[in-house]
Amino acid sequence: MTSPLEQKKIKIAGPSVVTANRTWDGIVVYRTAAKSWSADLSEAAIVRNSDEAKALLAESVVDDVGAIGPYIAPVQVGEDGKILPGNLREQIRRTGVTIGQPAQV
Amino acid sequence: MYAYDEIDRTLVNERVSEFRDQVKRRLSGELTEDEFKILRLQNGVYLQLHAYMFRVAIPYGTLATNQLRALAHVARKYDRGYGHFTTRQNIQFNWIKLAELPDALADLAEVGIHAMQTSGNNMRNVTSDQWAGVAPGEIEDPRIWSELIRQHTTLHPEFSFLPRKFKIAITASDHDRAAIKIHDIGLRLIKNEKGETGFEVLVGGGLGRTPFIAKTIKHFVHGRDILSYIEAILRVYNQYGRRDNIYKARIKILVHELGIEKFSREVEDEWQHIRNSSLQIDDEVIEDIRSRFTYPAYEKLPHMPDELRQAAADPEFEAWRKNSVAPHKVPGYSIVTISLKPTGGPPGDATAEQMDALADLADKYSFGEIRVGHEQNLALPHVAKRDLPALWKALDKLGLATPNVNLITDIIACPGLDYCSLANARSIPIAQELTRRFANHELANLIGRLHINISGCINACGHHHVGHIGILGVEKNGEEVYQITIGGRADENAALGTLIGPGVKFDEVADVVEDIVEAYLALRERPEELFMDTVKRLGVEPFKERVYATR
C-alpha cells in the first residue's frame, strides 16, 4: 500500500498492470494489450517481470493526453484468469471508497 | 462579511478565463501533464485515487449564504452531491472532472469564490478564528488583517514559487481557535502599552513528517509593519529554504536548523531594508478594508428570553445547547457551532441539500453569514438567543444537530486512503467506528472535552500530532497499522503528542481508544479533571500500561 508516488524502482514480485487516471475526467484506467486505456481491470495487460513492466510503463507514458500518472500496480490472477487488485489501495481505486458517501447515506 | 471590490472581481474572472484556456490546451495535448501540473495545482486541482480533487478557499472561514449555495451547486452539478470541509478553512470536492472544472470555477467566481493558491508551493489560504468578530474579549476582528495579507500575497510573484507551501493563521483571542502554533507563520493580535494594534509573530510551526510547534520570533510587530515583517520572513525562507529535498523544504526545518536566534537575526537584517518602504501600511488602507466588512445591525435583546427558558426543559435541546452554543460579544446573541460529525458519518462532509438548507437558516437566523472552523465544523455567528430553540429543531431535521461539539466524537480526520493518493491507511472508517462506539451522549459528556485527530499518512492532514488522542495510519507489510499518541493539543498551549507504543491493526483501533478512555475515567481525580489534565498529571505510562497489558 505504499503510495506509488514513492515508487522509485520498478521491481515486481508478481503479476502486475499499469494503471493511471483518465485525463479528461480522472477516472481509474488500466493499460490494455491493444495500447489503449480501459476502465475495466479485466481488460488490462498483465506483466510478470520487471522488463515487461518497464516496457509497458514506457509505452503507457507516451500517451500523455489519454491518461496521467501511470504506474505499476500489483494484481492477483485467479485460476480462472480473473484479475483482482493486489492490495487495498488498488482495491479502493477499483471499487470505490469503503465508506458510504454522504449523499447516498 | 467582506465586500470584494472591482479589482478582486476582475482578478477572479481573469483567472477563470486563464484556467479555461489552460485546460483546453491540456485536453488537446498542447500542454503535457508536466507542464500543466503546476498550473492546475495553483488552481486547487489535485489528482487523487479516483478522480481529480478540487479545493476551494474560504478565506478566514467566512461565507455568505449565496457563496454556500454556490458550493452546494458545484457539489450537485459537477460532483457527487457533497463536499468535504478541511482543517484549513477550505472545501474539497472529490469527484470533479477536469473538463468541467472551468465551468465550476466560473460559477464560483460569480459569488467571489476561487481556488487560487489552495495548493502548490505558494502562500495558501490565510486562516483565522471562526469566531472572529463575534468572540467576547477579542482584541479586534483578525479578519481585517487576514484580508490585508490575503490581498498582498495573492499572486505575489516573489512568493509564487517558494521552496514549499506556506501557511499563515491569525487569532485575536486568548483562546486560540486558529491553531496558529502549527502554522509556518502564526500571528497573535495584541495591543502594546500605547494601545496600538500589533502582533506577536511566531514562525516555524508545522506537522507532517517532522512536526514542530512554532516559536516566537518577535514579541511585538506594529500593525503598520506586519506586511514588511512577513515579507522579510518569506525572503529569508525563499533564499535559504531547501529546494533540494521536499522533506526538508518547509520553513520549520530552516528555523530548526538555523536556530530561532540566527533565523530571527536574518529576518531582522532583511526587515531593516524594507520596513520603511511602500510595504508600510497607511491607516487609510486598514480603514478601507475595515469599511468593507459589514456587521449585523444587532438588536437590544434580553440575555434570557422566554423562548430559551421554556426550551431549557427539553433535555435534548439542553444537551445540544450546552456544547454547541457559545457566548457572543453582543448580549442576547450566541455563536452556534454546527457539528459535521454525525454518528457513523465522515467527519467534515456536508451534502448539497444540507448546504442549501443551512444557507436558508443562516439567512433566517444569522444575518446571512456562516463560518468554517479548522475542526471541520461550521458555525452560525450571530444567532439571537430567542431563536435557538427554533434553529435547533431545524438543524435536527437536517441531521446537523449532533450534540457532540468538543466531545470525543467531534473527530478531525483527513480523507485517508479512501480518497487520497498520498495516504497509506484509511482514516474515515476509523472515525466512523469511534463515533458509533461513543454515540451515547451521556457517556461522551461524562468523558468531557477530548479531541481525537486521525491522519492516514505521515503528512498529517488530520493533525494527529496535536490530537488529545492522535491516530496515525501507516502501512506495514501490506497492512494498515495505526500508531497512537496522547497528550497533543493545537490551542494556545500547543504540544505534540507522545507515542504510547507499537502500532495496532485497523480492527483494534477503537478498542485501544476505549481502553485509553477507560483508563482516564479510572485515573482522573474528579469529574472536572479533563483528559488532558490527567495526561499532564500522570504522563503516558498509565495509559500505555492499560493499552498494552493485554496485547
From TrEMBL, chain A:
Pfam families: DUF2849
Superkingdom in the source lineage: Bacteria
UniProt-recorded name of the protein: DUF2849 domain-containing protein
From TrEMBL, chain B:
InterPro entries from the UniProt entry: NIR_SIR_4Fe-4S (IPR051329), NiRdtase/SiRdtase_haem-b_fer (IPR005117), Nit/Sulf_reduc_fer-like_dom_sf (IPR036136), NO2/SO3_Rdtase_4Fe4S_dom (IPR006067), NO2/SO3_Rdtase_4Fe4S_sf (IPR045854)
Domain (Nitrite/Sulfite reductase ferredoxin-like): residue spans on this chain: 52-111, 346-397
Pfam families: NIR_SIR, NIR_SIR_ferr
Lineage: Bacteria, Pseudomonadati, Pseudomonadota, Alphaproteobacteria, Hyphomicrobiales
Protein name (database record): Sulfite reductase
Listed GO MF terms: 4 iron, 4 sulfur cluster binding; heme binding; metal ion binding; oxidoreductase activity
UniProt keyword list: 4Fe-4S, Heme, Iron, Iron-sulfur, Metal-binding, Oxidoreductase
Stretches that traverse the bilayer: none
Superkingdom of source: Bacteria
UniProt domain Nitrite/sulphite reductase 4Fe-4S: residue ranges: 119-273, 408-547
Organism from which the protein derives: Bradyrhizobium forestalis
